[in-house]
Amino acid sequence: REVVEHMHRKGHKYSYMTLLRYLMEHWWVGYPSVDPLLEKHHAEHRLAWATAHLGKDHTFTVHIDEKWFYLFVRGGRRRKRPPGRPRPRIRCVHKSHIPKIMFLIAVGLPNPTKKFNGKIGCYRVCRWKTAERDSKYHKKNDVYEEDCTMNGDKYFEMMTKQVIPDVWEAYRWAGQNATIRVQHDGASPHTGEDVEQRIFDWAAENKPAWAPIVDIVRQPARSPDVNVLDLALNHSLASVMQKIEMRAKEEIAAKLRETWVNYPPEKITKAFAVLQTVFKQIIEHKGYNDFDIC
């Protein structure tokens, strides 16, 4: 509007909407991106990481990360509707408390020759609870999923009971001498109370004779762009979920699992290819994140 007022003072009588349409057609108009703030030691670590991983074979690399999935997204794209058709309404208890569910996702580089699609697992962060009485949601003695906080103990439980056994099974074809690098970020549930060492020790003690070795690797701090889930796949899954009409929290879990099963492996392969471009940009910018991925 300030630009319109300035143009009016110069004698150009353009309306606000005319100028907005012109900008939308000829320029990229959007919200500014918010990137992690990097100190010098962060940039140095990122530079060393990118240099070590550029051009490296990621066949035996697994990326894991948590992601919140919401019942709906406030705002979003505006849609036109025919005259007389009521406006669709989405209801929740409060607009600042939108129902959501956290999932832990694990992916690897797809390998079609080994019939591996890259999808290791999509796990809800929850605990199993038995209903003590009848309600409108459950019958007495029904066992159902209840959301819980992701902390060190929960992360250890999910890694040892779900993720690592699924990694072993997914990479059965790799053989017992192969080493699978499981990469995660430095969030406190992943690193506090010696969780990493406890997971590594458990994997070494409980590894079947036929299974590959599992190594736990921590990615550089403030570097979500070196993980394919934060880089592309989490947003891709969320964008698919936004197109699905859901009315209750339990529908989020069911629809996400269905989306996960049908998710194209080609997109995972492309994400790993984009990761190589990110490494090149990190090296070019000396470890900092002042770049865009086109």
Could you describe the 3D structure shown?
Helix 3 crosses helix 9 (265-284). The chain has 294 residues and is an alpha/beta fold. The longest helix is centred in the C-terminal third of the chain and has 20 residues, at 265-284. It contains nine helices and seven strands, in the order H-H-H-E-E-E-E-E-H-E-H-H-E-H-H-H. The strands form two sheets. The chain has a five-stranded mixed β-sheet, with helices on both faces. Strands 4-5 form a two-stranded antiparallel sheet.
Report a brief summary of the structure.
The protein is α/β, with parallel strands linked by helices.
Describe this protein with a few key phrases.
294 residues, alpha/beta, two-stranded antiparallel ribbon, five-stranded mixed β-sheet
Structural class: alpha/beta
Helix share, percent: 25-40%
- As laid out across the biggest beta sheet, the strand order is 3-2-1-6-7
What's the average pLDDT? 89
- How big is the Rg? 23 Å
- Estimated share of beta-strand residues: 15-25%
Distance between the termini: 30 Å
Poorly predicted regions are none
Number of helices: 9
How do the helices and strands follow one another from N- to C-terminus?
HHHEEEEEHEHHEHHH
Layout of SSEs?
Elements: H1 2-9, H2 16-26, H3 40-53, E1 61-70, E2 100-108, E3 119-124, E4 126-130, E5 143-147, H4 152-170, E6 179-184, H5 188-191, H6 195-206, E7 213-218, H7 228-242, H8 249-262, H9 265-284
